[in-house]
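Hi Q.,

Before the meeting this afternoon, I wanted you to have the flavin mononucleotide prediction in hand. No need to reply - just skim if you have a minute. The sequence and ligand are here:
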Amino acid sequence: MTHDLHKMTCIEDLRQVAQRKVPKMFFDYVDSGSWTESTYRENSSDFQAIKLRQKVLVDMDKRSLASKMIGQNTTMPLALAPTGFTGMICADGEILAARAAEKFGVPFTLSTMSICSIEDVAANTTTPFWFQLYVMRDREFMRNLIRRAKEAQCSALVLTADLQIMGQRHRDIKNGLSHVIRPTLPNLWDLARKPEWLMKMANTNRREFRNIVGHAKDVHDLHAFANWTAQQFDPTLSWTDVAEIKELWGGKLIIKGILDPEDAEKAVQYGADAIVVSNHGGRQLDGALSSIRALPDIVSAVGSQTEVWLDSGIRSGQDMLKAWALGARGFMTGRAFLYGLGAFGGEGVLRALEIMYKEMDISMALTGHRHLQNVGRDILVKGTYPISEREQNETVEQKRRRIYEELYGWPRASLRFGTMW
Ligand SMILES: Cc1cc2nc3c(=O)[nH]c(=O)nc-3n(C[C@H](O)[C@H](O)[C@H](O)COP(=O)(O)O)c2cc1C
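Predicted structure with the ligand bound:
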């Protein structure tokens, strides 16, 4: 297996290099899902089942994937997802990833559970990033986090709604990965075989959860931190808290972790500027729908009222193109950029973005389009993609209306003028 950055041609290449360079307990932390990992696997396999329609002899020159997410211009409609522990996948990981995102022209989201702090990432970047909020029982701490994110000029708050309690990943338990890393013999032996990682870690002092240590009450060291987090995720979090958070924040609010159309409707009601259809990358409720299968019902319920984005399982630009064709208007990726980061640091994140851009761009061209904004469901082979329950049950007249709206973007004229069909 080559370790040459320029020979990395797909996300799987980056994954394999990361596996060799990142200590096993951290690589497994990234590369696993909860319980049987069925949702984790289906997040990817459900994408693969969708087939694209090839079109030939159409003008494919001068293409563009440029888009907007919550009004912000992006090179392609993709943001780096919030991921905890990122500074342990590679030293200073959050700063390196944020800089790569900045260079490529896509948003970066900093997790509450990051190693580098909000202030540190702000000081080392020039473009405003997004901040992801986990709501803790200690509401004073939460209010402080929101204040700090505002002071750091973060341009959106991403409220994660699907982690009031934590799903279980077997490998983390078996590897002894808690918030304090256990110095077991296998862990130490593994660390000894990852010299590049060790050397970079030795050269940074960013090795603890800096949004929390020194900020939360009585949390001044890693041991206190472990006890604190074990008790702090708030299982009572509810929609009424969302209203308070929106008010406190006062800026763009993205709600992440929606899988059900009723929840999507509530998110709109509570003022979400965008929602992320997500199962947390298969890390929470094992047995839940893959996000691409959940998408059509959610687009059907709220697609005309808010921006519907998607994450979980995106490993190529083709995945994004397919989800776009089904109505998603933005994406987040977690593991794809983490593999790049673990393999080659910031350069690897950039490479992951380049790979996915190229895949999306070429696939769009070969399905007959030059501008992403014109891509619709007609690029997909009928019978291979999921459709909403509403569509499955619609009458012939409803179907006509829907097709008309899809074609022309506005409701069909009233029957007074005669049917168009
Ligand atoms: C290693 C890892 C850590 C994560 N940590 C967080 C986190 O701190 N906050 C959060 O909202 N989501 C977190 N997530 C979920 C991601 O934001 C995102 O929903 C998920 O990675 C998308 O799936 P994908 O990895 O298949 O792209 C994490 C995901 C991974 C893989």
